[in-house]
Amino acid sequence: MLNDYLKFLKGVSVSKTGKAGVVLTTSSFVTFLILEFARMIGVFTNTYLGLITYLLFPTLFLIGLILIPIAWQQRKKESGKSGRELLDLQFSKEETAGSFLGSKVFLSIATLSILNILFLVLASSQMLGFMDEAEFCGTACHSTMNPEWTTYQQSPHAHVKCVECHVGEGVDALIASKLNGMYQMISITFNLYERPIPTPVHQLRPARETCEKCHWPNKFYGSKLKTIVHYDMDEASTPRYTTLNLKIDETRGQKTGIHWHIAPENEVRYASVDDKRLEMIWVEARQKDGSVVRYMNRKILNQEKESAENERTMDCVDCHNRATHIYEDPSAAIDARMQKGQMDRSLPYIKREGLTAITQSFTNKEAGMDGVRKYIEGFYRRNYPKIAETKMDKIDQAAETFQSIYHRNIHPSMNIQWGSYPNFLGHGQNSGCFRCHNENMVNEKGKAISYECTTCHSILAQDETEPFKYLMPANKKDPTYDMHRYLQDEFLHSFKN
Ligand code: HEC
Ligand code: HEC
Ligand code: HEC
Ligand code: HEC
Ligand code: HEC
Hints:
Elements: H1 2-12, H2 16-40, H3 47-79, H4 83-90, H5 93-96, H6 104-132, H7 134-139, H8 146-153, H9 162-166, H10 170-189, H11 211-214, E1 224-231, E2 239-246, E3 251-252, E4 255-256, E5 267-272, E6 280-286, E7 292-297, E8 311-313, H12 330-339, H13 350-358, H14 365-383, H15 385-390, H16 392-409, E9 441-442, E10 457-464, H17 481-493
Antiparallel strand pairs: 1-2, 2-10, 3-4, 5-6, 5-8, 6-7, 7-9
Helix pairs in contact: 2-3, 3-6, 12-13, 13-14, 13-16, 14-16
The structure holds heme C (5 copies).
One heme C binds at residues 156-157, 160, 164-165, 207, 210-211, 213-215, 316-317, 320, 323.
């Protein structure tokens, strides 16, 4: 059997090119099998090796296969012989003799061709599956995707594959994503990509094909009570509470809530100045009767910046743009860890000094990690030598926490600093919701998109010492008495239609 096969191989390789083809095909096939076996039993888990197994070897295999007929053609031309004559020359009579199903040579070629096709189909489907793994997307290009991979692993979607959000349904989405992937490989090889990587607004599939597979818009109802703790910059890092009751439903009787924008019967379109989507030119809302109301930005009304390219139908990622790659605000990042008890609040000025430590600028990550720790330790050694002596373990623990914040959020090699990727979910510095909900975004009657403080949330405390300050009885002597009563009433009545 093996002898027959070798004889056959010798026969088909008519020239040096042909031999090279046979060697290439056979050796890449065998290497593929060995590597795949090794991967299956867990000897290798490396992503690069996966890339080589599934991309390189099947490609070499295919090139080898193609070389064989090319060699035949060349040989035919050079020797002036016909195909039949060449066949007789390369194989014995017995092998070329016709039988009921065709000659032995013909049968070998047919069987091998079927096997080859099967192998290639299998290898490419393995390849596609492999490329869909988050591990591949997150680590194949190493330093480039490191920020996305880091933030992904700590997000609520850490178990959702990259492709579930980045590649939509259907064959066209698959092909588009693979073409795009090829371009990305080229841009990484030749270092053509931007740092930080721009957000893929145009490439992202509509949320209906991605997010809505798992999150059902109609299920947003009721409200969500959220208490946010911020710590002051004073010696004791005093906690302050902000409590919001977020009106996250889409409709509630006559009233509308935050997910109104994506309810099936509604549509919001907008044009932004650029792909960053930080400044809107106009916003359109389709009404129940099908008519459309357009709001224009008074601030840039007369500027002819409008371009069709930046028009977009609003969906989940216009608010949840950081659903997965969540970069934190430095102060809020410390607050969150402090609330979880990951640093000792009895260390004087720990909030203030931590913030200074992590917002310093460093040339690379290692210098940053080192610099953060040195800054904290140095501060207590210099200013509180006693505490430095007795509580070094607490100081180290705090320093480690600050380092982990820095590590997660700052990526100097990709030019990612604090604020490189703004989060649209709230409204810091005229961003987020306030891009549209502001006094300058007006319709032809001069009415603005609503921006009253209680449109989106009731406010039960805002930087207060009590988390539910405005639910408590108001004190007539307090200067905030009227506001207190107003917010209390608004909250208590916001549940009724
Ligand atoms: C739950 C959905 C989701 C998952 C899972 C997900 N992404 Fe994203 N990704 C997004 C969204 C949304 C954006 C930003 C879109 C925007 O701002 O409009 C984004 C942006 C990006 C960007 C551009 C840089 C940036 O932060 O804006 C890269 C690169 C990226 N993702 C890679 C990945 C990789 C690699 C994985 C898997 C390890 C992954 N994504 C998993 C939703 C997701
Ligand atoms: C394959 C399923 C899947 C897809 C696709 C998906 N998600 Fe999620 N999402 C989840 C799961 C699972 C959770 C975690 C639920 C939990 O922790 O309670 C989650 C959580 C969330 C949360 C809540 C986070 C929090 O802090 O409570 C938001 C917001 C969210 N997803 C938005 C999105 C958006 C926007 C997209 C599209 C860009 C998306 N999801 C795509 C499965 C998915
Ligand atoms: C207009 C902005 C906006 C749009 C558009 C939007 N969301 Fe939200 N979503 C919010 C806000 C604000 C919250 C509350 C934030 C929080 O929990 O801190 C929220 C909360 C959520 C939650 C958590 C709900 C809970 O009960 O904890 C999920 C899941 C979610 N959104 C998914 C989606 C999906 C999926 C889409 C698209 C179909 C979408 N959102 C569209 C603003 C938006
Ligand atoms: C791209 C522009 C845009 C962005 C960004 C945006 N909205 Fe809206 N929003 C609108 C428009 C337009 C309406 C409808 C106004 C109308 O028809 O009166 C609306 C309506 C609403 C309503 C219903 C209010 C009412 O008076 O009926 C709520 C609540 C709301 N948005 C919350 C949010 C929140 C929260 C965010 C940020 C997470 C946000 N929106 C971001 C454009 C936007
Ligand atoms: C268009 C909707 C909308 C309007 C109008 C709005 N907010 Fe908000 N606000 C939000 C959302 C969404 C968040 C983010 C909630 C979260 O953290 O998930 C937020 C967060 C906040 C926070 C907490 C910030 C933090 O992290 O500490 C405060 C305080 C606040 N809003 C006060 C106000 C005040 C005061 C006004 C009126 C000037 C106002 N909001 C108007 C939607 C709105």
